[in-house]
């Protein structure tokens, strides 16, 4: 069964959120229920609320209205329908002075009904900046871009890998052909012709290992040219050839010994003191490079002893020249001492020269 409308009105007022609009006492509620029951039995929709006195609102002391709030608020009062519910009461009047009880000068002319009860209408919800459909579209669009970009990147990587593999295969084939041509160079030709032909073939090599091996063979040819020039006492051509051999294979310590011996030979035959000092300096640096690059321990020790001898001769020549300060002489002796075998003849000679320089 459904609750009749007068009783529903009473229940709605009892459950009102505003305490001022609910019944103020139990007798008032009983009286309203009785009126609702009577109205329901007689078919009337009017429920008479309890009679209330004057109410104090924000507009001052208001008389009790006589209209029924459960009908039309702006309708004229109905005879015998009871009294209207009291208006909203507030704890103080902001328009009155302290102690003032008179009505505020600003009293709006409200129609009969609910009186001056404030009605709050919440603002409509704010529309989102971006609609859900737009967000969904952009999300799918971004995902599509990511997938397409990934596929495009994979395709590029695959193409690059295939091209590199083809290039390596082609380079390997070409390098094998060039290496075979280098090995096929006629050994009966002169060294100069062999060097010229090998240089042109090395320029065609694209592999680092093949190029390094070919340059090592070219360094051997330059070394042979230098030794032939040295045998003919052509020291200038020999030096140029030995330097070319070192440039082609800079990690081969044996090639530096050729320069060390050449500068040693030139220094011993030189008459000018300053030129001898420069030649001994170059000889010491060449032997030092040979000792540093050499991997064989026995050869490394021999090259180190030759380095010490060259630095000792350099220090001795500088000591004979009054133009060299003592700290430069001692620097050469310290280097000689680093490479000299302990207890060797050169080590003892270094100590004696140290004593002379200190004195």
Sum this structure up briefly:
The chain is an all-alpha fold. The protein has helices at residues 5-14, 26-42, 132-183, 191-202, 208-231, 235-248, 253-269, 273-293, 297-320, 326-339, 345-358; strands spanning 55-57, 60-62.
Question: What report would you give on this structure?
Answer:
With 359 residues, the protein is mostly helical. The protein has 11 helices and 2 strands, in the order H-H-E-E-H-H-H-H-H-H-H-H-H. 26% of the residues are buried. A two-stranded antiparallel sheet has the order 1-2. The chain is 61% helix and 2% strand.
Strand order of the largest sheet: 1-2
Instruction: Tell me the overall shape.
Output: elongated
Largest sheet: 2 strands, antiparallel
Rg measurement, Å: 58 Å
Structural class: mainly alpha
Salient structural properties:
single chain; about 350 residues; mainly alpha; two-stranded antiparallel sheet; 11 helices; 2 strands; about 0% strand; elongated
What's the arrangement of secondary structure elements?
Layout: H1 5-14, H2 26-42, E1 55-57, E2 60-62, H3 132-183, H4 191-202, H5 208-231, H6 235-248, H7 253-269, H8 273-293, H9 297-320, H10 326-339, H11 345-358
Antiparallel strand pairs: 1-2
């Amino acid at each position: 069964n459904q609750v009749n409308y007068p009783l529903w009105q009473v229940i709605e007022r009892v459950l009102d959120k505003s305490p001022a609009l609910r019944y103020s006492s139990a007798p008032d509620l009983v009286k309203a229920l009785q009126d609702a029951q009577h109205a329901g039995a007689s078919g009337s929709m009017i429920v008479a609320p309890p009679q209330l006195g004057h109410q104090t609102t924000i507009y001052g002391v208001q008389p009790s209205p006589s209209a029924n709030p459960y009908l039309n608020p702006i309708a004229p009062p109905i005879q015998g329908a009871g009294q209207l519910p009291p208006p909203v009461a507030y704890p103080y009047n902001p328009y009155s002075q302290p102690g003032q009880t008179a009505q505020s000068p600003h009293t709006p002319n409200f129609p009969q009904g609910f009186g001056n009860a404030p009605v709050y209408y919440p603002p409509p919800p704010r529309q989102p900046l971006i609609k859900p459909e737009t967000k969904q579209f952009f999300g799918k669009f971004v995902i599509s871009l990511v997938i397409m970009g990934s596929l495009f990147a994979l395709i590029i990587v695959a193409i690059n890998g295939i091209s590199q593999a083809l290039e390596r295969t082609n380079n390997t084939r070409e390098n094998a052909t060039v290496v075979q041509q280098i090995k096929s160079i006629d050994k009966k030709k002169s060294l100069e012709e062999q060097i010229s032909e090998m240089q042109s073939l090395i320029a065609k090599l694209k592999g680092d290992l093949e190029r390094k091996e070919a340059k090592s063979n070219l360094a051997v040819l330059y070394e042979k040219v230098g030794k032939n020039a040295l045998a003919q006492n052509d020291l200038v051509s020999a030096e140029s050839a030995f330097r070319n051999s070192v440039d082609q294979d800079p990690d081969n310590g044996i090639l530096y010994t050729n320069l060390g011996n050449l500068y040693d030979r030139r220094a011993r035959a030189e008459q000018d003191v300053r030129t001898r000092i420069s030649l001994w300096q170059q000889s010491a640096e060449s032997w030092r490079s040979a000792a540093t690059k050499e991997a064989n321990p026995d050869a490394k020790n021999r090259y180190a002893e030759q380095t010490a001898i060259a630095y000792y001769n350099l220090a001795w020549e500088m000591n004979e020249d009054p133009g060299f300060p003592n700290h430069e002489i001692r620097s050469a002796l310290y280097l000689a001492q680093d490479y000299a075998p302990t207890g060797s003849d050169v080590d003892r000679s270094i100590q004696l020269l140290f004593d002379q320089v200190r004195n």
